[in-house]
TrEMBL record:
Domain Luciferase-like: residue ranges: 29-339
Pfam families reported in the protein's UniProt record: Bac_luciferase
Gene3D superfamilies: Luciferase-like domain
GO MF, any single term: oxidoreductase activity, acting on paired donors, with incorporation or reduction of molecular oxygen
The protein's name in its UniProt record: Alkanesulfonate monooxygenase
InterPro entries tied to this protein: Luciferase-like_dom, Luciferase-like_sf, SsuD_RutA_monooxygenase
Keywords recorded for this protein, A-Z: Flavoprotein, FMN, Monooxygenase, Oxidoreductase
Length: 400
C-alpha cells in the first residue's frame, strides 16, 4: 500500500481526556444515588490513570459536587492524571479562584488545568443568582482571565476596577507550581470565539463533522494570530460506541440511543432535569441539532442520533465502530488539528477501561509511526467505516 503524506494541519502529538464519574449511575442505567460513591470514584480515577489517559474533567453544575474538592481528591488518588477543574466565573471571585487553582497546582506538582464555563442556559445560571445576559457573561469571563493571570504573576499588591470585579491591594497571590496554569474555554457563540481566541490556552469543541470543525479551528486560530498570541490547543469531545465488529457496534449504538432517549424523556439522570426540553440557548447545542437534522452519519464514524435524542444536552455526538474504526476516526480529527481528544462512553467505567485497552494504543501507534517515518500509517486506509462503498448503518444495525 502506498504511503500517504501527513496533512499540514495535523497535530504531531495528542493527549487524552475523560470525564470523572462519582458513582455508577449512567444515562443507560440511571440509579438513585446520594452523589458520591467513594469506592467507585476511587476505582474510576485509578482506571483512567492505568488506562493511559492524560487528563480528567471535573464538571460543574448547580446540583453537582464541587469541582475543586473533587479535583483535589483526583490529585491525591493519582500520580500522573491531570485534573481539569470546570469553573463558572459567577460562582467565586477571580482572586479566590486563582488561589484555589494555585493550591491545587502545588498539591499536584503542576498538574492543574482550568476550564471556564461562561454559562449557556439562563435558568441554570439563575440557580446561583446569576442574571447577567449571555453576551455579557463572556465579557465577565474575559475580565476574570485577566485577573487570574495577574494573581499568579504580580510580585506586588495590585488594585482592579473593572466592569464586573473591583478590589484593592490584592496580592502577591499564591503562586502555581510552575509559571502558570493552562486556561481552557469552549463555546460556539461569536463572544466565545473572541474571548477564547484572544485569551485562552485551550479551546474546546464538541464532536462535529470534520470540515465544519476544521473551519472553526481556523476561525479561533485567526483570532489568536490577530491578537499576536500563541495558537490554542484544540480539544474535541466524543462519546465512542465500540464493539468487536462494525455490525455489533452499530447494533449497540441503536440500542444505546433508544435507552438514553428514554432516560432523557424521563428526566432521571444528572442535569437533564435542569436543562429543559425546549430549543437550547447555547450555540453548541443548536449546531449539534442542526447537524443531526441533516444526517445521522458523517465522515468515517461520527453519529448524531445520540445528540438528537438528548436535545444535544452536553457533549453527545458518538463515534461508532470497531476500536480500529474509532481510532482511525480520532486520527481524522487529529489530522484537522485536534491535539486534545476527550472520549467518554455511556457505560462509563467499562468504556474507560476498554478505550484504554483497545483505542488509545492504536492512535498512539499511528502517531509514533508518523514521527518515525514522516508518513501516515495504514490505520485509516484499512478501516474506512462509513466511508466504505455501500455503507448503511441501518442495515448493519438490523433496522428495517
Amino acid at each position: 500500500m502506498t504511503a500517504t503524506p501527513i496533512p499540514p494541519t495535523a497535530a504531531r502529538q495528542v493527549e487524552f481526556i475523560s470525564l470523572s464519574h462519582l458513582n455508577p449511575s449512567t444515562e443507560l442505567d440511571p440509579i438513585p444515588t446520594r452523589g458520591i460513591d467513594l469506592a467507585y470514584f476511587r476505582r474510576y480515577v485509578r482506571t483512567l490513570e492505568e488506562a493511559g489517559y492524560d487528563y480528567t474533567l471535573l464538571p460543574y453544575g448547580s446540583s453537582s459536587a464541587d469541582s475543586f474538592v473533587v479535583a483535589s481528591a483526583v490529585g491525591q488518588l493519582t500520580e500522573r492524571l491531570r485534573p481539569i477543574v470546570a469553573v463558572r466565573p459567577n460562582t467565586a471571585l477571580p482572586q479566590v479562584v486563582a488561589q484555589q487553582l494555585a493550591t491545587l497546582d502545588q498539591l499536584t506538582e503542576g498538574r492543574a488545568v482550568v476550564h471556564l464555563i461562561s454559562g449557556g442556559n439562563d435558568a441554570e445560571q439563575a440557580r446561583h443568582g446569576d442574571y447577567l445576559p449571555k453576551a455579557r457573561r463572556y465579557a465577565r469571563t474575559s475580565e476574570f482571565i485577566d485577573i487570574l493571570r495577574r494573581s499568579w504573576t504580580e510580585t506586588r499588591p495590585f488594585d482592579h476596577a473593572g466592569e464586573f470585579f473591583r478590589f484593592d491591594g490584592f496580592g502577591p497571590g499564591f503562586r502555581p507550581y510552575g509559571d502558570t496554569i493552562p486556561i481552557s474555554i469552549g463555546g460556539q457563540s461569536d463572544e466565545a470565539f473572541q474571548v477564547g481566541g484572544r485569551q485562552a490556552d485551550i479551546f474546546s469543541f464538541w464532536g462535529e463533522p470534520l470540515a465544519d470543525l476544521r473551519a472553526e479551528i481556523e476561525r479561533v486560530h485567526a483570532i489568536a494570530d490577530a491578537a499576536n498570541r500563541p495558537r490554542q490547543r484544540i480539544w474535541v469531545t466524543f462519546r465512542p460506541i465500540i464493539d468487536r465488529t462494525d455490525e455489533l457496534a452499530w447494533r449497540k449504538a441503536y440500542d444505546y440511543a433508544a435507552r438514553i432517549g428514554a432516560t432523557f424523556e424521563a428526566q432521571t439522570f444528572g442535569r437533564q432535569a435542569l436543562m429543559g426540553k425546549g430549543t437550547p440557548q447555547n450555540r453548541g447545542s443548536q449546531r449539534a441539532l442542526e447537524f443531526a437534522s441533516r444526517s445521522e452519519v458523517y465522515d468515517r464514524a461520527l453519529w448524531t442520533r445520540t445528540a438528537a435524542v438528548t436535545n444535544a444536552g452536553g457533549a453527545s455526538t458518538a463515534l461508532v465502530g470497531t476500536p480500529e474504526t474509532v481510532a482511525a476516526a480520532i486520527v481524522d480529527y487529529i489530522d484537522v488539528g485536534a491535539d486534545l481528544v476527550s472520549i467518554r462512553g455511556y457505560d462509563t467505567l467499562a468504556d474507560a477501561r476498554d478505550y484504554g485497552r483497545h483505542v488509545l494504543p492504536l492512535v498512539r501507534q499511528e502517531l509514533a509511526h508518523r514521527a518515525a517515518t514522516g508518513q501516515r500509517g495504514t490505520l485509516q486506509a484499512e478501516h474506512p467505516g462509513a466511508l466504505a462503498p455501500g455503507f448503511d448503518a441501518d442495515a448493519l444495525a438490523g433496522v428495517r
